[in-house]
Specification:
single chain; Cyclin A, domain 1; three-stranded antiparallel sheet; DNA-binding
DNA sequence: AAGACGAAAGTGGTTGA
DNA sequence: TCAACAACTTTCGTCTT
């Protein structure tokens, strides 16, 4: 942000919101034009800060051309003389109030949405998600706006959280790590936002089934379809034995792939699988041990 | 020499008082 | 708000191939 005139070094800059320009009061130089959004990308760490920093959605100049003096249609169902008006008219007034209100918030929603949707599309295509998934994600995002869940949060982090939720819901789970990487948002921030919106919207997102990670793992490791099937079969048994609850799904999936690859004679090292799955070798070993014990597996050629 | 194994200590997040 | 806790990671020494 410019705070000094580059020409005369005066710091008396005037923001002209009508023209969208920043002008030096001293020499008249237009320091910047086409100023779109002077609002900071802030994060509120507590409610006090939030109150201080919150801006009502979009910046003032586009949002409120009348400088905040909004018109409202009053609540009293009386005409100008104070006489009661007919119920038919009352209903009409009710609708007018409703739409009047809606029209005034519609524009800020639109702005937010257009930023969000392009971000959503960007991340979704990096994640390789089909259009249908993007559509549901967009829908979910809309719901978030309608409930006012965005305020106080970065649009990007809400987008990331929405994508995470939708991916899980549609059985194409992506890890928080992957999404965090692409969206450029911290993992814990996404997790926090995700928990918040899923709670607020009453989302019923199922627990991630480890076998949903298997196809991507086997593909990344160039393993055959046989291995994939075998791994999924193992996981099915593991799930029925309750071996999965409380465990990270990626770790369990990795262990199953490890076993399956060994059984099919397409052995991969623990390290290779660990890297592909985003867990450590130790975790694979732990899950692998559990699987072997609980499923009574005899693995001769390991 | 490289991979597999497991113990021990450390890390970040959740939960329940 | 804090401590206990579980899952996971890091690190490291030992064993196997």
């Amino acid at each position: 942000m410019v705070d000094k005139c580059p020409d005369c070094k005066s710091d008396k800059l005037v923001k002209d919101y009508e023209k969208g320009e920043i002008m030096c009061k001293n020499c008249g130089l237009i320091v910047a034009d086409n100023v779109v959004d002077t609002g900071p990308e802030w994060r509120a760490f507590d409610s006090e800060q939030r109150d201080k920093r919150a801006r009502g959605g979009a910046p003032i100049k586009y949002m409120r051309p009348n400088k905040g003096l909004v018109t409202e249609i009053d609540q009293y169902n009386r005409d100008i003389r104070g006489a009661k008006i007919s119920s038919k008219k009352q209903a009409q007034l009710y609708r007018m109030r409703k739409w009047h209100k809606r029209a005034s918030i519609a524009s800020s929603m639109e702005r937010n949405l257009s930023i969000a949707l392009s971000e959503l599309d960007r991340v979704a295509s990096y994640l390789g998600l089909p259009d249908a998934v993007r559509e549901s994600a967009a829908l979910l995002y809309r719901k978030c706006i309608e409930k006012g869940l965005i305020r106080g949060r970065l649009i990007e982090s809400v987008v990331a959280a929405v994508l995470y939720a939708i991916c899980r819901e549609t059985g194409k789970p992506r890890t928080l790590d992957e999404i965090a990487d692409l969206a450029g948002i911290e993992k814990k921030e996404i997790g926090r936002t995700y928990r918040f919106i899923s709670h607020e919207l009453g989302l019923r997102v199922p627990l991630t089934d480890p076998s949903q990670y298997v196809p991507r793992l086997t593909a990344a490791l160039k393993l055959s379809g046989q291995v994939q099937e075998k791994a999924i079969e193992l996981l099915k048994k593991a799930v029925s034995k309750g071996l999965v609850s409380g465990r990270g799904p990626t770790g369990v999936a990795a262990a199953a792939v490890y076993i399956a690859s060994a059984l099919a004679g397409e052995r991969k090292t623990q390290k290779e699988i660990a890297d592909a799955a985003g867990v450590t070798e130790v975790t694979i070993r732990n899950r692998y041990r559990e699987l072997k014990r609980e499923l009574g597996l005899k693995i001769a050629d390991l």
